[in-house]
Every structure is written in C-alpha cells, then in structure tokens.
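Hi V.,

You were right to ask for the full record rather than a summary. Here it is.
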Amino acid sequence: MAPLVLRTVAETAAWVESLRRSGRSLALVPTMGYLHEGHLSLMREGRRRADVVAASIFVNPTQFGPNEDLSRYPRDLEGDLAKCASAGAEAVFTPEPAEMYPPGFQTSVTVGEVSQGLCGARRPGHFQGVATVVTKLLCLFKPRVALFGEKDYQQLQVIRALERDLSLGVEIVGMPTVREPDGLAMSSRNAYLSPEERHRALALSRGMAGAQALYQGGTREAAALVDVVRRELAAAGLREDYVELVDATTLKPLSAVTPGLPARMIVAAFAGKTRLIDNQPIGG
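Predicted structure:
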C-alpha cells in the first residue's frame, strides 16, 4: 500500500495526534531522500520497534554550505515513495523548504563539543542545520524511537546529544552501515561517482579493514593505525579530507586504543569532486 504523503506541518501534526489517540507507537526515519538499502533497513527496524513507521524526505538547505551540492543533490520522490512502501512506512513527510522555514524563522539548535572537529570543522554550520531540522522533526512527530545510520557517525552523536540535553524523550537508535558487496558504504552521493571513481572509493573501506587487521595483530598506537588508512587513500588517488582515530562517544582524538574502550576510525576523502565519509569501530 502506498504511504500517506504529508506535505505540511499542520496535516502532519493532525496525523500524529490521530496516531496518539489510537494508542499506536511511532518510529521515525528522517532522510534527505534518494533512498537506498541503508535507509530501508532503518524503516524495517523501525517496524520491529514500534507499531507504525513514518519517514521524512527533506533536502534540508540549512545543512549545506554555500559551495556545497544542494542544487544537484539527487532526488527521486516517486521512486522513494515506492521504496518506503516496500519497507512498510505508513506515512512520508515531504515538505517544501518554506514549510520548514517560514518567513520570520529565527531559531536554531547548536550542539557543542561533539559537533566540533571532523565534518564540523570542514563544513561550518552543517551540524547546526542538522540539529535544528532534526529537533523540529522530533518535536513534530513525537516518536517513541528515531533511527539513523552509523555511516554519518558524527551526525548520530550530535543527535544523541541534542535528544539527551533537551530531554525530548525519544530513543535514538544507530544502525550499522549497510555496504555494497565490495565494501563501499551505501550513500546517496555514490550516484555522483563515475565507474573509475567508484572503484577508487573502495580505498576507504579497504584502509579501515587494514587498520582493524593491524589492531588485531597487536598495534594500539593511533598514528600507526591512521597511517594504514592514509596510505590506502593515497595509493588510490583519493584526496584525504581527514583520517582520525577517536573516542566512540566523545569523538575526541585518541593517541592509542585502550582495550575495552570503544574507538572509531573516521574517514573523509574526495573521489573526484565527490566527498565520501565512512567509519568503523576499532577494538572495543
């Protein structure tokens, strides 16, 4: 069955109220559309955790910088709605930017330490845009649970922090990155890659696998683990944006992995003009 398409805040609030009166619980999956199996895995998990699943499809302009890819970000609403139906979403919120940010809009949400560094340093204002739109969506839908992919790992930690700090009462669930059979992390931006760039992009996952193998062999120093990833990126002709080994919760850089304390290798690099991100747990 095709999902109910909600286009305004008012009709969405009415739908959420009817759901509340019926006593059914809600899982929310916020997206920017151009859906892939990673998004659909979130919706299927949402069905397991709640009575009803809703998704949002909104290419949020406030999280794009002036030289980023807002105008060319891939869109396929008709295909996305069909995919939402296949994953069991009952409703999809697809607002226009003016609906989310009407004239006079002047409020923003800023998350502190966890949004610093990594993508936060390279994309000024990005996480303020993410935090603001996600806060709006959580307040509008009032879900029991909201699901996000771990591929955008810093984003996930920002959202966990804002939910905790603002006492929104929503369980934030991070789901494992879904990968292509050859290891490439699924991403809407993969559509930008030429066949040759896509092949070179495998260096991200290959480098992190090499770092994990080095850790399993007994290496604990961050510099050595990071160097494995950097060498793979360089060999593939990718332009490194950053490679860092960080605490999995605070995202603070580590000098070494402490057994029993979760760490993450977090990577961003350019294949041609396309910026790709990935991450993987190390140790823990």
